Automatic annotation (TrEMBL):
InterPro entries: AAA+_ATPase, ABC_transporter-like_ATP-bd, ABC_Transporter_VariousFunc, P-loop_NTPase. Signal peptide: none annotated. This is ATP-binding cassette domain-containing protein. Keywords: ATP-binding, Nucleotide-binding, Transport. Gene3D superfamilies: P-loop containing nucleotide triphosphate hydrolases. GO terms for molecular function: ATP binding.
Length: 301
């Protein structure tokens, strides 16, 4: 725990007085931003305010015109999912294998990882369909999968849910929450305040080339307990509907995780046990303090 608190204070990546100019237009203007280990940060801003430019600056993929970028993460441990993903003449598996090769992964290791990602994203592994024939949602899943290929320490996502239908949005939101539970450091840009409020520990707004902290209306500020548990699927179906005080819920590999209003947590725990569930862990919701906390021992990917 002590180690986690210390890690939380170490910036994984830091921009100081960063400048980026395109054709005389200064998009980043003496911008300073630190991303702490295990933190999830949402980046809001109007169209053209420079969100993609900032994500690229954080990744180190794009050079700055001025200022500095400091990072403790090697480039290969940074996953980046751009806002546009090409419709290629490859199947998803062929594409991900090629990406693994380019990144210098051993073929067996890449295949192990790709299989896990197919499972996590619930994509059909055997299909030969090419990316150019994929739906937008499937394509975005492959985009996120390539960013997660090498178990990144820092995950940068440019508008990860933009233009997707409701079921895919829900599915991908749950995956983001699972990655967050594992302690992954994530920065994502979005136009959606609701997504930012739901997933991020911290929200910043990009305006006039700089970032300002932002508080979203309707954010829940009262404390939560994060409860991880197992339930039989059949029992889980009706479980939440009857329960007040559940603010977030998601599932992966048979483990359910709920963020429950603190004053309802004891009742919730009793209800899980009454439904023959087993409690894996209970902890304070640390998302308002940016302290990393592991909800359970299993790793999703
Ligand atoms: N490679 C480039 N060459 C020239 N101009 C660029 C380049 N990249 C970005 N810009 C310009 O920088 C500004 C910021 O672009 P950026 O894509 O970072 O904004 P954004 O906030 O991500 O926009 P959106 O919300 O529409 O995706 C825009 O005016 C854009 O035209």
């Amino acid at each position: 725990m002590k180690g986690d608190v210390l890690m939380a204070k170490v910036p994984l990546v830091k921009l100081a007085e960063a400048n980026r100019t395109f054709a005389g237009h200064r998009v980043l203007n003496k911008l300073s931003l630190e991303i702490a280990h295990g933190e999830v940060v949402a980046l809001l801003g109007r169209n053209g305010s420079g969100k993609s430019t900032l994500l690229k600056a954080l990744s180190g993929l794009d050079a700055l015109d001025g200022g500095t970028r400091l990072s403790t993460v090697p480039l290969r441990r940074i996953g980046f999912a751009p806002d546009r993903f090409p419709r290629l003449r490859f199947s998803a598996k062929e594409y991900l294998r090629a990406m693994g090769k380019i990144r210098g992964m051993a073929p067996a290791e890449a295949d192990r990882r790709i299989d896990k990602l197919f499972e996590l994203f619930r994509l059909e592994t055997t299909t030969d369909a090419q990316l150019r024939d994929y739906s937008k949602g499937m394509l975005q899943k492959v985009n996120l999968m390539q960013a997660l290929l090498e178990e990144p320490e820092l995950l940068l996502l440019d508008e990860p849910l933009s233009g997707l239908d409701a079921p895919t949005r829900t599915e991908l939101t749950h995956i983001l929450l699972l990655l967050k539970e594992q302690g992954m450091t994530i920065v994502f840009s979005t136009h959606e305040r609701e997504l930012a409020a739901r997933v991020a520990d911290r929200v910043v707004q990009l305006q006039d080339g700089r970032v300002e902290p932002m508080t979203l209306e309707g954010e829940e500020n009262s404390p939560n307990r994060v409860i991880a548990f197992r339930l039989m699927d059949a029992a889980a179906q009706g479980f939440y509907a009857a329960f007040e005080g559940v603010r977030q819920r998601y599932e992966g590999q048979g483990i359910w995780i709920c963020h429950v209003q603190a004053d309802r947590a004891d009742d919730f725990l009793r209800a899980v046990l009454a439904a023959n569930g087993s409690i894996l862990s209970v902890r304070e919701d640390s998302t308002r303090t940016n302290v990393r906390g592991a909800a359970y021992g299993g790793k999703i990917c």
